[in-house]
Design brief:
The structure is a homotrimer of 131-residue chains. Chain A has 131 residues and is α+β, with helices and mostly antiparallel strands. The first copy, chain A, has helices at 18-28, 54-67, 81-90, and strands at 2-7, 13-16, 33-38, 44-50, 93-99, 102-103, 109-115, 121-130.
């Protein structure tokens, strides 16, 4: 597997890592299969969404903040229960089809690392399964 | 990979595509592996849930509408931020086990295309990875 | 594929099944690939989150209860619409990288079966795809 390093700059933000995933796929020379992207953190996740208008990202972030407030009657003492909950809602992995040596994404799709408890140095793991 | 075409009829609805996925698997002659179903749209998603009582579908749709209102202080100018957010919560792909040439689903499980900004002509991509 | 049996004890709870998944991987002798974990129930799901402080689990469960109340204007007559909705939010499968014959999880990550309508006897299916 390969590792992508990500430096996040805010407590909560979405960062498009599609270019980095594409670079890994290119080096692999795999023509057909599946690309598994995995987030090894429990206060961050992964999602696919629009990469054209940046306000889509901020609307997602804002709605997640509204649904899952940072401060409420949480028991976990580290003060980041909202980050754990958001991460379970986004999910910790993405699977994308590889065909003709290309990641098969829709026209408007970006691959987002969802930082829910930054800023931090993060990593994402990528495994390519050939078919 | 194979493509499934879907014509949606409402702004928000769940459409069972299990039969179409099964047809693709049948033609592939693959006996064992993984079926990856991918939604290339950013205002639609995929989920697995009950296919017996149709009120389960409508309860899911209604609760998503309640949690993520269509009209609130969104910044994205297209008026479909709720559709983007719902899509990230459902997720853009499903992975299902193939064994004995069959999709391994539970007794009550259907495979739903989650239209969050229809009606539209949509597509879903299916990739079968043999083991 | 292999089956994990799970006895749940509460209506809603998260149960760590990482040890059981690891046992299956060990027996498989697979060194590199992907581990697909699938939940065949429509009122239960799967998620990855922190396995150190048990209050993370209870905070997740409590927030899900708050966002998706058990009793509201649901149409589904079985009284467990909340369980179906929660299951679609958690998701029905997890994909984890296998490298060096090991499941590649982050330091704090556990693999949780999300019981949303227990207590019941449940099962989870595990398929290992070698690369």
């Amino acid at each position: 597997m390969e590792e992508i390093k990500i430096k996040t700059n805010n407590r909560i933000e979405l960062i498009d890592i599609a270019d980095k995933v594409n670079s890994i796929l290119e080096k692999s020379k795999i023509k057909s299969g599946l690309c598994l992207i995995f987030c090894p953190h429990t206060t961050a996740g992964l999602t696919i969404n629009e990469n054209a208008d940046p306000s889509v990202k901020s609307d997602i972030v804002d709605m997640f903040k509204r649904i899952i407030p940072t401060n409420t009657n949480y028991q976990h003492a580290e003060g980041n229960s909202d980050s754990h909950i958001k991460s379970s809602i986004f999910g910790s992995s993405l699977s994308i089809i590889i065909e003709d040596s290309q990641l098969q994404l829709g026209t408007w799709q970006g691959i987002y690392f969802c930082e829910n408890d930054g800023p931090r140095q993060r990593q994402v793991w990528v495994k390519i399964i050939s078919n």
